[in-house]
Write a structure and sequence with these properties.
binds ligand Z5A; alpha/beta; 5 strands; 12% strand; 8 helices
Length: 218
């Protein structure tokens, strides 16, 4: 029987620790003997990384919200076609730093675009493909901003105000509440080692093959 790889996404607000924890998640999955593709959004392919450059460029102050939304899905369409779907079709695992939940959180919650419009694009670009598991690194916005504040030049999203990030966080939490079978909420306010312990605990069943499922690669 074909061994199904899982599609796992990491989500969270500003400074939640995704970049810090990606390497740990990668290490856990690879140590369990799985073949893994590690990737990110927006980005993951040459073309999608070029679109990322446009999206994050702080000089693009005139970018319309609809343009931003469509660029996110344009980058995603290429990423799915070139990397994510081929990997899953081969039975490999895919670990992605952000995916469509970020679009609901940032373009929906943050920018105020109607969530039903995002759902239409999701259906068009992804068909039935959804992550098998989403780890949501959740922490209060001010704590995340304080952590992220150590950085140098801020990108177009990092220049947003606290109210924007509060809406982002609330949208993530609403989605996690609506889909408890897919989301695992991680308390990201704990120290790095404690966050890792929570991640290891929620991933263990999948790594032991107790949480596998057939995926419709439409
Ligand atoms: N975006 C969107 O709008 N719509 C979409 O559909 C998608 C994305 C897919 C790029 O994302 C932007 O794209 C993003 C949303 C938008 N913009 N924002 N904001 P990104 O994921 O590439 O960039 P990011 O969100 O800016 O990541 P980040 O702010 O770097 O956060 P992070 O990766 O979660 O944090 P980190 O770099 O791991 O940690 C931040 C600092 O905290 C660092 O100094 C760490 O050492 C420290 N840290 C980490 N964990 C801890 C703990 N547990 N305790 C104490 N300190 C910690």
């Amino acid at each position: 029987m074909m061994n199904n790889g899982l599609f796992i996404t990491l989500e969270g607000g500003e400074g939640a620790g995704k970049s810090t924890q990606m390497a740990y998640v990668q290490q856990l999955i690879e140590a369990a003997g799985k073949t893994l593709q590690v990737t990110r959004e927006p980005g993951g392919t040459d073309l999608s990384e070029q679109i990322r450059g446009l999206l994050l460029d702080h000089r693009q102050t005139a970018m319309d919200s609809d343009t931003e939304l469509l660029l996110m899905f344009a980058a995603r369409a290429q990423h799915l076609a070139q990397l994510i779907r081929p990997a899953l079709a081969k039975g490999e695992w895919v670990l992605c730093d952000r995916f469509t939940d970020a679009t609901y959180a940032y373009q929906g919650g943050g920018r105020g675009i109607d969530l039903s419009r995002i759902a239409q694009l999701e259906e068009w670009v992804q068909g039935s493909l959804r992550p098998d598991m989403t780890l949501l690194l959740d922490l209060p916005v001010d704590e995340g901003m304080a952590r992220a504040g150590q950085r140098g030049e801020l990108d177009r999203f990092e220049r947003e105000q606290q109210a924007f990030f509060e809406r982002v966080r609330q949208t993530y939490r609403d989605r996690a509440e609506a889909e408890p079978e897919r989301f695992r909420i991680i308390d990201a306010s704990k120290d790095i080692a404690q966050v890792q312990q929570q991640i290891a605990a929620v991933l263990k069943p999948c790594l032991n093959g107790e949480n596998g499922k057939a995926r419709g690669l439409s």
